[in-house]
Every structure is written in structure tokens, then in C-alpha cells.
Amino acid sequence: MTLLELRDVAVAYRGAAGDVPAVRGVSLDLAAGEALGLAGESGSGKSSLAMALLRLLPRSARVTGEILLDGEDVLRMSWGRLRAVRWASASVVFQGAQHALNPVRRIGDQIAEPLLVHGLATPAQARRRTAELLEQVGLPAWRARSHPHELSGGQRQRVMIAMALACSPKLVVADEPTTALDVMVQAQVLALIRSLIAEHRISLIMISHDLSVLASTCDRLAVMYAGRVVESGPAREVFTGARHPYARALAEAFPTVGDPASRRAPRGLGGDPPDPARLPPGCAFHPRCPAALPSCAERDVGPRPVAAGWSAACVHAGPEAADTGEAGQAGESGGTGAVRENA
Amino acid sequence: MTPAPLIEARDLHVEFAARGRRARAVDGVNLTVGEGEIVALVGESGCGKTTLARTLLGLERPASGTVLYGGAPLAYTTRALKAYRREVQLVPQDPTGSLNPRHTVYEAVAEGPRIHGLLGEAERVAAALARAGLRPPERFAGAYPHELSGGQRQRVVIAGALALDPRVLVADEPVASLDASVRGEILALLLRLRDELGLSALVVTHDLGLAWNIADRVAVMYLGRIVESGPVEQVLSAPSHPYTQALLSVLPDSPSPVVLGGEPPDPTRIPDGCRFHPRCPALAGGKAAGAGVDGACVSQSPPVLPASAESRAACHYAAALRAGN
């Protein structure tokens, strides 16, 4: 059953020199209980897309398209309805737990807040639920009386996860939940996230630039570049056999320790992610692409099927890849506007 | 085979006063970085790796022990430290925070040569920018940090270090704040600087993949001490310390993760016996008892590792295994 459906979602920020596109037509589905990894670098639009899901973007952002949560369009909800949906149906684990928690309030009060605001519990029930949640994320119940500065980074991230789970949402969006954490603490937090989503059948959207972390936690991966999904498919397959050159570069950026191929051979891409206000023409990735064809500078292709549930937006992907350049499957992408011409 | 040591830490101890207690941030460390060698110092936050790096740079004074450069102990006079820092340069962690937003790239890179009163400033800056991969240098010299990408800013910071013709770079998490696709390029730059200029480097990181990518030797630090060190291939392919084994096992691709409980412990309360014993899976799982060393694990601290090129681990259990073979 589909819990979340994105249809041609676009986000643009109003700037002095006109609108700057951050997300340019993304369509994705998320089934109930499924974990989707959203990968990309700064400026790829992944965080804008995630924040758009609950309309958490600043007023300067314009969001278009459809975001259907349980069949209901988030973008057309009234404020009252939206308030009810936030936390209760879908919640966010924000990036950087040290800044997202209120430093002068006790942990327990912050976890209980959504329960009380939504009228889901009496103060006594909220206290009991808080203790239960802290236990679920592996913290002792007495921690409810602590302030954020008394906790380590990993413990604060656990508190953020407890807050996100407080109202038993169906969807949790985790924005870089383990960035800035040590490897061992990262492993603890990832194990916790994995067990919680499995236990409560929660759908998860996890955002990171580390494809190896996403591949080990999620069922599916979607890799974003310059505001678009350039490849999406089953997590393991995309991680080990990405068809889009950018997705491949991202997968290779974090070496497998012990793999002789990456010993003394760090791999990266030349150039830098593009400025969203000045995107290159054609495929936005072509200036950095090691496999670009002359036609890539003029022509953008939409997602092409690689296998069932797996697609890549690259001229080199799909059955008719190299020869005709016929972008027959581009229609689904909604607005990528593939121009059909031969290389 | 083994390069002559250029920088050496000899039985180094560094302490801080923390909330009325004594924090032993570096608690007995022997470490060398040889001529043209890249050494990765790996550990979790709070293990003392940044303090050790700062002490090697002469930014902290050790409570006891010695830092040697080219075989001579470091003198802590202003003049001697200034001369030392020309040769041993820091590449800071966050390029955005370490560049003055109101200084152009040229001014940022020229600052070092000006402080040291070096001649030929313009040529020095241009050469340093080119070596750091900012080509052509004229294109970048007039730019301000906000006009550059994260990777370019990191290159500017590296160029600032190179402008003094140093022999050693001490890089603290050089790629942690960079985008994934840019990371490889900066690491390749560090490798190229070693190959072309013979630069030595001590890279402080929590990232074992980085060590695998560029380092010759790796030293794993836990709670103020180096618990395992040796050639990267040996330590990272066949680790003998349970802590190194656990760190490697939680990498995302690993088949059987050993997730250690608890948080990295507190340098104001270093446990008795082996400092790792409260979290040690070999002790908790009964393996240490099987080898007959569990008593030693909780009562005797393993000896401080010597600065050696060979693979070594400060672990009673690993020592028992080795002796048994």
C-alpha cells in the first residue's frame, strides 16, 4: 500500500535575481513500512524536498506538484489539518540534534510536548509514554529530567528519535541523522533506527550523502543531483551497480576498507556541484561527467528503466541506450522534456 | 624501508583541568611520522587525537615526554616555535571557519609568507595555489571565500600551508566537511603532494576509509593511548586489537557488526587495568578468560606501544594469541 506519493514536486526559492530552482520535478512512491534513502550532496535539493513534505520550508520557497500522504495532498491542507498531520502522521528527525533541542528545557518535557499539544495524552500519560520512549531508544527513564547539555551527541540524537516517535507516526523523515556522530555511535543510531522501523512498521525517508550508510539501512535508494532524481532503485543494486555516472561516483566516494582497488586510490569527481541559479544546459551533470556525449550538453533525458523498479536518467542507461538515443520512457518523469534527437 | 623519523612523540602526556578534575587527554604516546610518510591517527571524538596533533604542532605543551623534530627536542620559545611552524603546517578542519570572509584568496595564502618575512610573495602565492590545484592561480587570487565551493576553500587552506614550503602537514579531518564527490579529489591532492614534494603528513580522522585511501601507516587511539598501530594493510585487513576490530566491523558494508555499548569514556576517569576493558567484546564474550588473561585485563594496563613500523597492539588477549601461535 502506498503511504506517500510525490508527483512532479518542484521547489523554488525566490531570490533577488528571480526564482532559484532547488527541486525540479521529482516523482517518488513510498510504501507503508518501506525505507527510502535519499542521497545527494549539498545543493542537490534533498533537504528541500524532505522539508517540503511537511511544508517546513521558509516563506521564500514555492512548492508545486502533489505530495499525497495517505491520499491527501499536503500542499493543499489547511493549517489546522497540517498541524494535526505534523508529528502525528509524519515527523522529522532534524539534522544536528544539538541545535534542534531547546537547551533550557528538560528532555522529558520536549518529548512530551507533541503528545500534549495534540491532546493525545494527559500530563500523567505523557510522562509514562516519555519513559517508555526513552527506553525504546536505549536511554534510562531518569534521563527525562536531564537538559540537552548533559547528554552526548549520540544520546541527543536518540532523544530526537524518541520525539519523532512520540505520536506513533506512519512516516519518519530523518535528515542526516548520523552526520557528525562517531562511527561507533553512528552504528548504534543506525541499528536503533532499523529496529524501530521494523518493529513499528514505520515508513522511513533517510537523507544522507553517504550512500553506504543508506544502502545498509534502506530498501530503496534515490540519488539526487541538481534538483532531480538521477537514479532510483533497490538499495543494494544501486549501491553496487549504479548506472548513472554520478550515482556511481557517489557510491565509490566512500571506499570499502580492504578493497585493493581503492587502496592509495581515492576516487572523486572533478569540478563542483552546480549553482542552482546557473544550471548547465542539457543534462545538469554533463560538465563533470566522465562519460558525457556531445549531445548531453544540449539534451536532458528522463528516467529510463534499468530493471523492475530501477531507473536511471542517463543516455547510457536502459535497453536502447547507446544506439538511437530514443528516450521512450521519459514520459513518467513529468516535465523533464526530453528532446529527441540523435547524438 | 622505514623512513627516518621526522616528527616524533616520545612518551607524551598532555593534561587538562576539567571541572576540577584532571583529564589525561594524551596518556603516554609514542608515535613517529617519517620523511615522506602519511600516517593516519584514527579514533573517536574525545580519544585525544586532536590534542596529540596540537601537541605535535607545539600548540600545547606536554605535561611530560618530548616532541622531537628531526631528532632534536622542540624548544618552546617564541622564536623556535615560529621557525618550527614554518616547517610543520596545520591544515584546519573547517575551511569555511578558518578563512577570513573579508580576505581574498591571495591575502589568505600570503598571510604565512608575510608573517615569516619571505621574499617573492606573489610568486609564492601563485605557486602554492597551482600546487593545491587552483589553476590558473590568477583566476582564484582575487576571489572571496563565499564565491568558492567547499572543495575550493579546502584547497585555499592547503595552499596557505604550502606557501611556506613546509615538510610536514598536520591535517585535522581534512575532508569531513566536504561533499562526497569532492572528498576523493582532496585526498588525491594530499597523495600527490607527497609524491611530488616529498611532504609528510599526519592525518587526524575518525574515518577508516580515509586511512585506507591514502595512509601508509595507521595509529588507532583510544582514551589517550595508541592501542594499535602498523602498516595500513595489516592493521585494517587483519586487526588484532578488539577495539580496532569493532571499529572496522561497524563500517556500513561489514557482514557482522560488533556494536560497542555506551559512549566513548571520559579522560578524567580512565578505568584501571586495560582502559578498554569495560567495553571490550573479547573480555565480555569470555575469549579473554579462555586465554587466561581476564585477570590481567581488569588489573594491569598493557605496556605503552613503542613507536614502531611493525604492527603492534596494546592488548593482553592479542598478546596471548600471538604467544600461543
From TrEMBL, chain A:
Q: Name one GO molecular function term.
A: ATP binding
Entry-linked InterPro entries = AAA+_ATPase, ABC_Ni/Peptide_Import, ABC_transporter-like_ATP-bd, ABC_transporter-like_CS, Oligopep_ABC_C, P-loop_NTPase
Question: Is Cytoplasm among this UniProt entry's keywords?
Answer: no
Q: Where is this region: Disordered?
A: 257-278, 320-343
Q: Provide the protein's localization.
A: Cell membrane
Say if the entry is tagged with keyword Membrane. Answer: yes
CDD domains reported for this sequence: ABC_NikE_OppD_transporters
What does the record say about its membrane topology? Peripheral membrane protein
- Top-level taxon: Bacteria
The main place the protein resides is membrane
* PROSITE patterns in UniProt: ABC_TRANSPORTER_1, ABC_TRANSPORTER_2
Write the record's keywords in alphabetical order, separated by commas: ATP-binding, Cell membrane, Membrane, Nucleotide-binding, Transport
Q: Name one Pfam family in it.
A: oligo_HPY
Domain (ABC transporter): residue spans on this chain: 4-251
NCBIfam families, per the entry: oligo_HPY (TIGR01727)
Q: Which family does it belong to?
A: Belongs to the ABC transporter superfamily.
State the name under which the record lists this protein: ABC transporter ATP-binding protein
- This protein's species is Planomonospora alba
Q: What is the lineage of its organism?
A: Bacteria, Bacillati, Actinomycetota, Actinomycetes, Streptosporangiales
Automatic annotation (TrEMBL), chain B:
The lineage, from the top, is:
Bacteria, Bacillati, Actinomycetota, Actinomycetes, Streptosporangiales
What Pfam families does the record point to? ABC_tran, oligo_HPY
What GO terms are given for molecular function? ATP binding
Q: Does the keyword Disulfide bond apply?
A: no
Signal peptide, first to last residue: none
Species in which this protein is naturally found: Planomonospora alba
Q: InterPro entries recorded for this chain?
A: AAA+_ATPase, ABC_transp_ATP-bind, ABC_transporter-like_ATP-bd, ABC_transporter-like_CS, Oligopep_ABC_C, P-loop_NTPase
Descriptive protein name: ABC transporter ATP-binding protein
The cross-references to CDD domains, in alphabetical order and at most eight, read:
ABC_NikE_OppD_transporters (cd03257)
Please indicate if the UniProt record lists ATP-binding as a keyword. Answer: yes
| Keywords, ordered alphabetically | ATP-binding, Nucleotide-binding, Transport
Say which family it is in.
Belongs to the ABC transporter superfamily.
Q: Which residues form the ABC transporter domain?
A: 7-248
